[in-house]
Amino acid sequence: MHHPKSPAIKKTRRSETLVRSSILSRKVLRVPAAERTFRTTASPARGRPRPADGNGRGIMNLHDIKAFVAVAETGSVNRAALRLNLTQPAMTRRLQNFEAAVGLTLLDRSTKPPALTPAGRQVLEHCRRILKTVVDLEAYISSVGEPAGDLRIGIAHGLAEVVLTSPIDDLRRRFPRLTLQISSNWTSRLLDEIRNGALDCAIGLITANHTIPKGVRVTEAGPERVVVVARRDTSFEGRVTLEALVGEGWVLNPAGCGCRMTLQRAFDRINAPMRIAAEVFGEDLQLSLIARSGGLGLVPWRQFEASPHRSRLCMVDVADFSLEATIAMLQGPSLGNLAAAVDSLREGVTEHLKIIDIFHNHHSKNAFESYIPT
Predict the structure, then answer these.
(1) Domain range for residue 117?
(2) What percentage of the chain carries pLDDT values higher than 90?
(3) For the domain that residue 90 is a member of, what is the CATH number?
(4) Is the peptide bond prior to 113 cis by the omega test (within 30 degrees of 0)?
(5) Same domain for 111 and 238?
(6) CA torsion 183→185→188→193, rounded to 10°?
(7) How confident is the model at residue 302 (pLDDT cuts 50, 70, 90)?
(8) What is the pLDDT of residues 269-290, one digit of tens each?
């Protein structure tokens, strides 16, 4: 028998102590999640717990916000996954995580494709502003005072080729750290996109029929007339009335165009029908069709004058119909360090319009065509 204080007994007792400590450590690690000092919510996709805020909702993060915005803008989880370079399951998890975080149903999944719920539309506007603020912050940190990052520009249909030539070239040379994202739409939709933060600025064709949303700033770049045009060999002579044009076929943009809407209202005032001969998207194609096969069109004056079909076309002087418009810069209330670039673009457009007018008023069409960049 060993003595109680022999070295062998002491070694055995030390081993037993280490074993008990190891067991206690494993027991601590097995404490249920509900008994820990912080709460969690389960991820809908895999059931894994995520940290929660003080209200028991999941914590939001930028990755999930970007996923929700991508799904809302593309209308599809698959297309959103491609945009963000993710797999479809990963995109679905981010979307579910974000819905759990906000505690609201953002998508109506009973429709194909899923549509935004009323709450989803409101949340989308907030998310766009958040992402825009993050972009502004990153651009500011990377280069204080120098515009950098994405500049999202919208252009009204009918203005792109006439307006966005040298102004865009000058903008790129002056601000090389900018990445330009340019899209085209009806002016009414551009106003909505400025309001909800989908665009930073836009060049719009504003008429008396447009309603300017609260928070959207409109700065005039120059006046514009929208004119009625026809093939040069038509029988219209001198001034005509709108009633004289009843029965003529119009070549116009599809429904949604503000100019078409104004013309339709003018026909409604005289209780006469407006006959659509062709719905053609884009004024260039409309002018080409009218020059070849006739009909009436409604296009911005500068685009009419710059058209390669100008020699085969003429303006029709309609006594009781005119459409005056304003080419204007549209922008939201806060642009961060992009403000200098937007101001530069507006100034460039204003100067370019003046140059175009000088050529139209004092030079032949050939001189003007030699000026327009290709």
Answers:
(1) 47-130
(2) 54
(3) 1.10.10.10
(4) yes
(5) no
(6) -30
(7) confident
(8) 999 999 999 999 889 999 999 9
Mean per-residue pLDDT, 88-92: 93
Contact status, residue 312 vs residue 232, Cβ threshold 8 Å: yes
Provide the CA 365 distance to its chain's centre, in angstroms.
Answer: 36
Asked whether residue 34 is assigned to any structural domain, the reply reads no
Predicted pLDDT at 140: 67
Number of domains making up the chain: 3
Six-digit token string for 116 = 């935004």
One-letter identity of residue 335: L
Give one DSSP letter per residue of 120-177, joined into a string: HHHHHHHHHHHHHHHHHHHHHHHSTTS--EEEEEEEETTTHHHHSSHHHHHHHHH-TT
Cβ atoms of residues 281 and 254 within 8 Å: yes
Nearest 5 degrees, angle CA 97-CA 103-CA 106? 75
Q: Where are the beta strands (DSSP E) in the chain?
A: 40-42, 49-51, 107-108, 115-116, 149-156, 178-185, 201-206, 217-231, 249-252, 275-279, 296-300, 313-316, 323-331
User: Could you tell me if residue 36 is inside a domain?
Assistant: no
Q: For residue 155, which amino acid is it?
A: I
Does residue 67 sit in the same domain as residue 124?
Answer: yes
Q: What is the pLDDT of residues 122-162, one digit of tens each?
A: 999 999 999 988 877 776 665 566 788 899 999 998 888 76
Rounded to 5 degrees, what angle do the CA atoms 264, 268, 271 make? 140
50 token code pair: 């995520």
* Mean pLDDT score, 364-372: 41
